[in-house]
Amino acid sequence: MSLFSFYTPCSLCPRNCAVDRNGGQRGFCGETAELRVAVANIHRGEEPPLTGLGGSGTIFITGCTLGCAFCQNWQISHNGMGRPVSAGEFAAICLALQNAGAENINIVTGSHAIPAIVSGISQAREEGLQLPILWNSSSYESVQALQDAEAYIDVFLPDLKTLDRDFAGRYFSAPDYPEAATKAISAMLDMKELRYSPCRTALEAAQRGEPIDPEWPLILESGVVIRHLVLPDRLEDTKAVLRWFADHAQGRALLSLMTQYTPIKSPKNRFADELPNRYVDEHEYDIIQTWLEEFGIEDGFYQELVPDDSWLPDFTRTNPFSSELSVPIWHWKHGFINL
User: What number is the average pLDDT over the span 9-32?
Assistant: First the structure.
């Protein structure tokens, strides 16, 4: 069965919209079967085993299966910023990232577009793509679709946002998010084991017969990294997620605890006044550290406090991030750049 059959009727995420996306209808995600992309860049702000020395080759997909009221990529997840690309252009974007020195191809919010993305990855591999593929998602996706796409994915990078049904229902438009996300992540854990390899710089040095610097980082070439964004005033959500990780994923995945929550003030965000209007503070940060010790979680990363919004992306710019964080390769308005 072709992966494109998931589009008609659409069953790529737990919403099961059942619309005919192959026929041009749009699901909750806002997208037809046409793949749209906003930006591709070399991103240096990911976790160390994803960034390495060359950076992660991120491709931001337009649309999303969730309706998160505090989404930091609001322009592309809610406002539809991006343009259509064919499988051939998607493959060319992947190869351009590889040629620019990326350590991997990091596909961001592609859950609603698995068939088109798999088609693009397949063509890219035929044309010389050799990098690991990262699947960077909200976890609100179909287990069957993930299993069918497994051969095209090397590393899963899922969010586990909350285990609170009421919170998920109000602010994600998905009360079943906790069950759906933990089911998807459990499937990911069954699919991939943690495995590392030398970064590209080390491999290229070895191919030239040069010594490898032991300080050069290893890159995750297979496995699962579970991310969780800490929300101010909602630390019990974080504690529940940490407990779930300790019970179900400890030793099988890495944890990435993020403290970069930033209030989103889009005029279209009807929940803006209900959500925390501040950053995570030092007291909350200290509490989280004690919970990591309490649950015995050692494998992973936690982000330093980010008390401003200077890092927030703006996808109207050729380089949505600061120049220290990224190098632009492709933009929805300008096509290929810096090549």
Answer: 95
Q: What whole-number distance in Å separates Cα of residue 106 and Cα of residue 36?
A: 15
Judging by DSSP bridges, how do beta strands 56-61 and 36-43 pair with one another?
antiparallel
CB 58, CB 339: distance < 8 Å: no
List all residues 6 or more positions away from 318 whose beta carbon is below 8 Å from its beta carbon.
328, 331, 333, 334, 337
The tens digit of pLDDT for each residue in 140-158 reads: 999 999 999 999 999 999 9
Full-model pTM: 0.95
CA distances from 307 to 218, 232, 259, 301 (A): 30, 12, 9, 18
| Complete DSSP assignment for 216-263 | SPEEEEEEEEEEEE--TT-HHHHHHHHHHHHHHTBTTBEEEEE-----
Mean pLDDT value across residues 303-321: 86
State the Cα–Cα distance between residues 203 and 210, nearest whole angstrom: 10
Q: CA–CA separation, 330 vs 153, rounded Å?
A: 22
Dump pLDDT digits (tens) for 45-85. Answer: 899 999 999 999 999 999 999 989 999 999 999 999 999 99
Contact 17, 128 (CB under 8 A): no
Q: Which residue carries 């995600």 as its tokens? A: 29
- The token pair that represents 249 in the structure block: 């994923």
Contact yes or no for 95/129 (Cβ under 8 A): yes
Point out the least confidently predicted range of 3-17, 281-295, 298-312. Answer: 298-312
Q: How many CB atoms neighbour CB 270 within 10 A?
A: 9
Nearest to 119 by CA among 140, 144, 148, 141: 148
Look up residue 228 and give its amino acid. H
pLDDT given for residue 18 in this prediction? 95
Question: What are the helix and strand counts (H, E) for the chain?
Answer: 10, 12
Three-state DSSP at 116 gives helix
